[in-house]
Amino acid sequence: MTDPGELRAWTFLSNHAHVLVCIGRDPDITMREVAEQVGITLRAVQGIVAHLVEEGYLVVERHGRHNHYTLDRTRHLRHPLERHSTVGDLLDALSRD
Q: Does the keyword DNA-binding apply (predicted)?
């Protein structure tokens, strides 16, 4: 029999996808809030955001003391198995009721 704690040890989506989902839901979310929601460190979120910006998936604009994020929903996912889908497709699929 499988330990219930072991079942929670992995998820189907990467932390990069989780960060995208958080930002997609709230473009004014703080990195600290993303870290809390995803369950990773603030430093990990900062690294993921840097990757997303570097690859053109995300633009960060400073609004006073806070950041505003803009996702490029037209960018294609990176893995060959999902390359036919866009960020927008992913976010739409995960936001359906």
A: yes
